[in-house]
Amino acid sequence: MITQLLTVAADATPKNQFGFFEAMEQGGAIAWSIFGVLVIMSVGSFYILITKLLEQQKVFKEFNDVRGPFWRANSLKEGASKLGKNSAWRQLVDDALAADAQHGKMTDQTEAHDWLHGSLARSEAAINAKLAGGLPFLASVGATSPFVGLLGTVIGIYRALINIGLAGSASIDKVAGPVGEALIMTAIGLLVAVPAVLAYNWLSARNKRLAGMLSGFSTDLLANLSSNGQVKPAVPAAAAKPAAAAKTAPITKPAAGAPAAKPKA
């Protein structure tokens, strides 16, 4: 008896027919296609955010080696060996050394200096372009994802109007599904756009900091090459190793009964 009552009560409980999946199912293939595009945009945005953040963090970390061990080396070649092979700073040094090797083949000193400066500028621009890779995708997602969601909104409202026309009345059961679909698409479009815009602005600001650091390092390299290694930027002193504790001879006590040493006059 109790089981029958529970079964009847469960059947009498109203089911939610206006959830997310129900609204998407009413939207059909178009709604699911728009939702899929927004999901791809969101996943791509977070992938670029994580990968570019790790790449930037690596360049920032390697700058500590540039400020210390690199400039304390006797030559640029020796200093370059202390940098990572895939380092952005190592690329600048290698390009500078390659340009300097061709520098002596030019008879005009002005042209030679311009060649060296131009080579460093090209190398610096190539590094900045690599660091900026993927940011246009974030900008595109931030600019277009609200409109993609708006497309789903327009389609949902259009379906709601069709249902109203067919039913002859604007009853809630006829318009709740399409309107819910429209609101869901609007919300998803905004949820995709906001993180993409924030990530783009944050990564761009960090890239500007890196561009300034690369420009300063390039200028120091040019000055060092032009002065035959005489001009170097001020670098922090190397951390001094703690000095070993001085060993002191143990103080021996006089043996029992032995006369104490008399002080010399």
Verbal overview:
The structure is a single chain. This protein is mainly α and 265 residues long. It is built from seven helices and no strands. It has one domain. Helices cover 73% and strands 0% of the residues.
By secondary-structure content and strand pairing, the structural class works out as mainly alpha
The total beta strand count reads 0
List the secondary-structure elements in sequence, H or E. Answer: HHHHHHH
The rounded distance between the terminal residues' Cα atoms is 120 Å
Q: Low-confidence segments, ≥5 residues, pLDDT <50? A: 240-249
Portion of residues in beta strands equals under 5%
Helical region count? 7
Largest sheet: none
| Percent helix | over 70%
* Average pLDDT taken over every residue: 78
**Rg estimate, integer Å:** 36 Å
Number of structural domains: 1
Sum up the overall morphology in one term: rod-shaped
Observed structural traits:
265 residues, mainly alpha, 73% helix
Write a brief structural summary.
By secondary structure, this protein is mainly alpha-helical.
Write the layout of secondary structure elements.
Layout lengths: L1 H11 L7 H51 L5 H5 L7 H16 L5 H23 L3 H33 L4 H55 L39
Helix pairs in contact: 2-6, 2-7, 4-5, 4-7, 5-7, 6-7
